[in-house]
Design goal:
This protein is an alpha/beta fold. Helix content is about 45%, strand content about 15%. It contains 13 helices and twelve strands. Strand 9, helix 12 and strand 10 form a beta-alpha-beta unit. Helix 1 crosses helix 2, helix 1 crosses helix 3 and helix 2 packs across helix 3. The protein is elongated. The N and C termini lie far apart (about 95 Å).
Length: about 350
């Protein structure tokens, strides 16, 4: 008996079309993620090869796990101290609860582990989609999620391009201009920025914005130092800055915990806040409002940000078309006791 001809697979279509298996999956299942021209080419090749869907796999693809994934690539030790993440998770849960969708969160140690987690979750059908935070320049996570055909929404600094996953965005350039511009308008000419992880897009945007403010306001000097978001790293950078010959008259921190660490170091070194040093933070929380002096911050509704991301992902699961990027809550400047004109200026 002659052997049965081999059944054509998605891999066969991908090789002939010169695209990834993920792109073929998008096209064959009518999902967003490929251009109309590529979709038509893939469908034509599938017809030529007499491809037919596997009924078992198709049934599996149509089922729902009822779970959304969230991978957090941050040091585990800071999660209990920063209020941003509990508030974000509260918002995500708030957005998921009407649909009775569960949230599965995993803390990982590096980018490779995060990428492997997405592959494992998707191939094992453990989650229906994921929410992604901390976009990077040329982010490999976005590319992987598109290739997998995995529904996703990210929280970032600007709307996504058409071929990327949709973003719930907060304009980090405008936010940085607001905070750095306020400090400069007070009269400060030596401004330091104790930042978070350098590879994160919002960190890079804040650093670049500070340099732009230096030119706009004719500042004497500005400096940005990247850290791992920990209080220890923030304290170490603050000591270095305040021990220098030409120390800053203002320091802006990327989180509330880092700002509190900086305030503690200033007190240890006998540097009066705000008399000799102004301190501000990109993150607000009850902690920075209750401490004395209370800290000037950018205030935003992080709970609403998480809720918008969850609802957008649920909409994506129910739609054959990509959901649009959406603007998140606008941060507002909250001026408190930790900022003032530099000594000698009114």
């Amino acid at each position: 008996m002659a052997p049965q001809p081999k059944r054509p697979t998605i891999g066969d279509i991908a090789r002939k079309a010169g695209v990834s298996k993920g792109a073929v999956s998008f096209a064959l299942n009518g999902r967003p993620g490929v251009s109309a021209e590529t979709r038509q080419r893939i469908l034509a090749i599938a017809g030529e090869l007499n491809w037919r869907p596997n009924s078992a796999a198709q049934a599996l693809g149509q089922s729902r796990a009822g779970v959304i994934g969230f991978v957090l690539n941050r040091p585990a030790r800071i999660l209990g101290t920063e209020t941003f993440f509990p508030e974000l998770l509260s918002g995500i849960e708030l957005g998921l609860s009407p649909s009775r969708t569960a949230l599965h969160m995993l803390v990982v140690s590096d980018l490779d582990e995060e990428l492997d987690t997405y592959r494992e979750w998707w191939h094992a059908h453990r989650v229906d989609g994921v929410i992604v935070i901390d976009p990077r320049m040329n982010d490999p996570r976005s590319k992987l999620l598109v290739e997998l055909g995995m529904p996703a929404v990210q929280i970032g600094s600007h709307p996504s391009r058409e071929t990327e996953i949709p973003t719930i965005w907060v304009d980090d350039i405008e936010a940085a201009n607001t905070l750095f511009g306020y400090i400069a308008a007070l009269g400060h000419r030596r401004i330091a920025h104790v930042a978070g992880t350098a590879e994160f897009e919002h960190t890079a945007l804040r650093m670049a914005t500070l340099k732009d403010c230096a030119e706009q306001f004719d500042l004497e000097w500005v400096r940005s130092a990247a850290t791992d978001y920990s209080a220890d790293a923030a304290a170490s950078e603050t000591r270095t800055l305040l021990a220098g010959k030409s120390r800053p008259t203002a320091i802006v921190y990327d989180s509330d915990v880092m700002a509190l660490a900086g305030l503690r170091v200033a007190d240890e070194m006998g540097v009066a806040v705000p008399g000799e040093l102004s301190i501000a933070s990109f993150d607000d929380s009850l902690m920075v409002r209750l401490v004395r002096p209370s800290i000037t911050t950018l205030t935003r509704d992080t709970v609403e940000l998480g809720e918008l991301a969850a609802r957008a992902l649920l909409d994506q699961l129910d739609s054959d078309e990509p959901v649009p990027s959406m603007a998140g809550p606008v941060p507002k400047l909250s001026v408190r006791e930790s900022t003032a004109p530099p000594h000698g200026r009114s």
